[in-house]
Amino acid sequence: MNALKNPRILGTLAVLVVIALTPLAFGDENYIMRVITVGLCSAIAVYGMNIILGFTGQLSLAQGGFFGIGAYAVGLLTTDFDWSFWQAFLVGVVGTSAIGYLSGLIALRTKDEYFAIFTMAIGFIIFLIISRWESVTHAHSGVNNVKFPEAGDIVDFSNPTAMFYLVFVILLVCVYITYAIRRSSVGRTLLTIRTSEDLADAIGVNVGLSKQLAFAASAFFGGLGGGLYASVVGFIGPDAATVDKTFEFLMFILVGGMGTVAGPLVGTMIVTFLFEFFQDFQAYRFIVLGPVIIALVIFAPRGIVGYLGGFIDRRARKRRIGSIRTNGQSRSDGATHTNASTRAGNSADTATTTEEEK
Amino acid sequence: MTLFIQQLFNGIALGGIYCLAAIGLTLVFGVLRIPNLAHGALYMLGAYVTYFFLTTVGVPYVAAIGIAALILFVLGVLLERLVFHPLRNAPHTHHMIAAIGAMFFFQSVAQVIWGADFKRMETPISGSLQILGAEISAQRIVIIVTAVIVLGLLTWFIKRSIHGQTIEAIEQDRTGAALVGINPAMVSMLTLGLSALLVTIAAGLVSPINLLSPTMGAALNLKVFAIIILGGLGSLPGAIVGSFALAIAETMTSTYISSAVGEAVAFIVLVAVLAIRPTGLFAKAVQR
Amino acid sequence: MNSIPRRASRPVLAAAVISTFALALGACGGGGGSGASGGDDSVVIGYTGPLSGGGAAYGKNVQTGLQMAVDDLNEDGLEVDGKKVTIELKSLDDKYAPSTAASNAQRLADQDEAPVVVSPNAGAIKAIQQINDGRSKFMISAYTSDPAIMQADNALTMMIPPNFESYAKPYTEQGMKHGGKKLALLGTESEYGQQWTKAITDEWKKAGGTIGADNSISYATVSDFAGPVSKALAEKPDSIFVGGPSQPTALIMEQARKQGFEGSFLVMDQAKLDEMATVTKIENLTNSIGVLPVKEYDDPGNKDFLKKYAEVAGEDKVATSETALNYQSMAIIAKAMEVAGTTSDPDKIRAAVPDALSKVDDKYKVNGFPTKITDQGHLMNPELEVTYLNEDEKYTKIPVEQVSDAK
Fold it and tell me: Where in the sequence does UniProt note compositional bias of the Polar residues kind (chain A) (predicted)?
């Protein structure tokens, strides 16, 4: 098992194991279970952002909207139409992916900032539809009593711990998909597009189709997270689809680390708990949180996982250089020199995560 | 017919407001190449600082706007120095999140200082004019006239003055400008300061017909972004045309279709235009 | 240039982030100890409302009322089951988002062991109703006029203000009497605004009036009210339905008068006529039907309350029913705890509310104090009144027949 020697994979597994064990410690604490479970739903949507932003380098700001579509599909179908959760969930996720694919057809004609703000407009239109189309979505009155997943007599999903594990298992699948994409040729294709679209085009990558699929995939994850979220919280309002939600996701992925496997999860959990922690300051909390957010992007631009990844790489490199040096083949300043150039590389292009192949 | 003329003037006045807010944002984009999401927060702060000088200190209306504009200029410079300058080599995602952090911070500060309540700003400008049977308030005429004057001055500043020309030079070719001795860092500060100054003038003009609140910038923010994207990022004529086009579209659809469509029309137009021209109406040659 | 200090600060920053995270987890996990354990000498009453963002002013008004009551009650001294108890108000910000409100309520109930959580927003209350009567138990002190929260059959919900649907009939009668048969709709596009618009539309049609297009606008995001007002006036209405937060509502009415409207206004209960008079001349507001200002009530504690409010909030702020009704209801909650002899059992506290109502000290009766509570949990004062602000700028009172909360 070579993989288990890789500190990155070990770290990711450690994070997952810690989260898997939280119900043992906090099973009776409804509040903490709720915050964590809702956080996991967000994390799923953030994994979607990771594919389009982290891997493909396209800043999509429609993710909050896709999350909302997933949530409202499950919410409305299980209440007004009395479908079962699973039917509604399936339709919601497929529908969100389809909407994602279709809006991608137009959105991906634009590039860079145009793409970012264009997708923000898509997200905002989705929000406007949800908050103003009263006869269908009940607008601001919201959707009440969204169903829990049905499981016969086997599991009772109204139990927070059971719901937690359902969301967690789906999250695990998302983490695995991210890991698999990262290692596969698909992942390399996307990373090439991130580095340079012209280059990717020149070496025969179908840039348009790849971006299109990545965008649909990000919508798929958004719908997945939203659908689960609706069932977890039981009541949804238009606040599930706001543009602010998108920026929340963006904050999660930045703090965690773009383009990494564990980043979205770590970022989501840390920022969620940071926000909860600062609740005690009430209206004043953003006087502290605002500068904290700014400091994070300035001083830890690659996110926490990116930072730790860089740390691991430097250590590995030092060790390598160290072993070379004992063989008497290294110049005395080799280590510091390499170190400094890594630094320079990091600050020059912060989006590039180190050691893509791992 | 009277309704149409009434709404046309209302639309033009709204366009003037959007325009003053949008040109600053598009300038910042042209020079710093960042979408400054804190722009709406600067607008809000500009309104409050004007309110403070007008109501609490008691200086005349025009002087209050002037002092507030200068204070916001300094604030804009500080924002560039402390937040955007350290991020100058980072990708745009980082700017966006940093700008959101700044926006949260400004909103909280305003709420702490001035409270969460709506505030009304009284001005000496009152009365109204009869134009073709429509009743137009003097404040709206002032908004339209000021927007035209400010746009004229800005064009002169950018085309004729040394400092302004440096802005255009950097917009056109950053490396080339640096080679001929223009300091990009200075120009960045100048531009952000200028955008804060312009948006303060907009805020000072609008506040009397609307209300002040810590979140007043949020609603404007999205629309102004739609405008500068529609016009083509970094393009001044684009921002001007976009402002008036969207404002008139907004009032007219609200009037003749429904207010819900009026609220969404800016974004529907945006989607339609970008579907046909992915770089906006007046796209500049984009330098990479 | 500055890469050297940054290099040094990175590990520090990482450490800071990780330790904050640990602290946050610790604070969340260990919170139980810091709160009041039942039967001690203090009890936490929770409040989750919008304290930042667009709804902040509203959330703060509610919070002020609660805090004023808590201070007064503690000064009086509260005794529960033979022990002296101090009340502590713990407030959390939900920015008007229902899901955040539910998380906050859960936190207040779990970690601070609050037997009662106050929430001033129908959406948030519906979200909280999903969790307050199951694995966790706590009572919701619900400040909303939306009867939908009563239809949820939640045994632990106490609804404070009157059902807004009761207003539709007197509003329609008065509106037609002082204006005419043609109504324009210019309410706010919020959850509550939409419900009001619907209720007024139904009642107005029932009375034989005609209604123009629905011109509802988002009061919070419109930059210039002149356009929407011109549009509404183009229908040549005799009456206009307006309403959202007081201040923008006042601006809309001012704009309508400026553009020459002379008919009557139906002002939704979210807007308070006396508060509106602080941003526009009262002559712009006359010939309108609205809810009765707090200062017009005759309850025994009314004058003292207004005096205290001026001390707390400043002379230029107008006391609204958000503050006054929550002041009253906090006194009811405290009395119910006293009657029930417990600060930790929400079921018993809720059961004690009917008895508590008649025992609350007169000084806490400020704004139409309720005399009974329905089986579903709605506090009721049989003598509800609305007001007509006449051309002489005087408030005249009009009695209201209250409708049932059932669908």
Answer: 326-358
Q: Using CA coordinates, name the residue in chain A closest to B214.
A: A283
Residue C113 lies in a domain: yes
Pairing between strand C210-214 and C239-243?
Answer: unpaired
For residue C32, the model assigns a pLDDT of 39
Same domain, A55 and A83: yes
Q: Does residue A85 lie within any of the structural domains?
A: yes
Number of helices (H), then strands (E), in chain B:
11, 2
Q: Are residues A282 and A313 in the same domain?
A: no
Question: Neighbouring chains of A at 3+ CB pairs within 8 Å?
Answer: B, C
Domain assignment of residue C11, yes or no: yes
Q: What is the pLDDT of residue C5?
A: 45
Check A270 against C21: CB less than 8 A apart. yes
Its domain, for residue C28, covers 1-34
Mutate to test the interface with A, among C92, C126, C219 (most CBs of A within 10 A): C126
B108 CB neighbours in chain C (<8 A) are: 52
Identify whether residues A208 and A323 lie together within a single domain.
no
Which pLDDT score is estimated for B80?
92
d(CA B100, CA A173): 32
Does residue C87 surpass a pLDDT of 80?
yes
Q: pLDDT value at position A72?
A: 93
Question: What pLDDT shows up at residue A354?
Answer: 37
pLDDT band at B288 (very low <50, low <70, confident <90, very high): very low
pLDDT of residue A325: 66
Residue A70, domain member (yes or no)? yes
Instruction: Provide φ and ψ at C270, rounded to 5°.
Output: -65, -30
pLDDT band at B200 (very low <50, low <70, confident <90, very high): very high
pLDDT score recorded for residue C19: 53
Output the pLDDT for position B32: 84
* Interface touch B135/C251, C-beta < 8 Å: no
Name which of A114, A124, A293 is nearest B278 (Cβ-Cβ): A114
Cα C169 vs. chain centroid, distance in angstroms? Answer: 22
B contacts of C259 (beta carbons < 8 Å):
135
Which residues in chain A land under pLDDT 70? 1-4, 282-283, 324-358
Same domain, A225 and A182: yes
Give the C-alpha separation, A144 to A157, whole Å. 17
- For residue C405, being part of any structural domain is answered with no
From A158's Cα to the closest Cα of chain B, the distance in A is: 36
A103, A125 Cβ separation under 8 angstroms: no
Whether A287 and B263 lie within 8 Å, measured CB to CB:
no
Higher pLDDT, A97 or C24: A97
State the smallest CA–CA distance between residue B61 and chain A in angstroms: 30
Cα angle at C43 between A277 and C126, to 5 degrees?
65
B249-277 b/e with 16+ CB inside 10 Å = b? Answer: bbbbbbbeebbbbbbbbbbbbbbebbeeb
Q: In this predicted structure, what is the pLDDT of residue A341?
A: 39
Is C125 in contact with C150 (CB distance < 8 Å)? Answer: no
Q: What is the mean pLDDT of residues C360-369?
A: 89
Please give the pLDDT value at position A275: 84
A10 domain-assigned: no
B267–A301 CB contact, under 8 Å: no
Q: What is the mean pLDDT of residues C260-281?
A: 90
- Which residues in chain C are closer than 8 Å to B221, comparing Cβ atoms? none
Of A150-164, C81-95, C329-343, give the lowest mean pLDDT range. Answer: A150-164
**Domain extent at residue A337:** 305-348
Closest residue to B116, CB basis, from C57, C221, C230:
C57
Give the β-pairing of C78-80 and C83-93.
Answer: antiparallel
**Domain residue spans of chain B:** 19-215
Identify whether residues A221 and A342 lie together within a single domain.
Answer: no
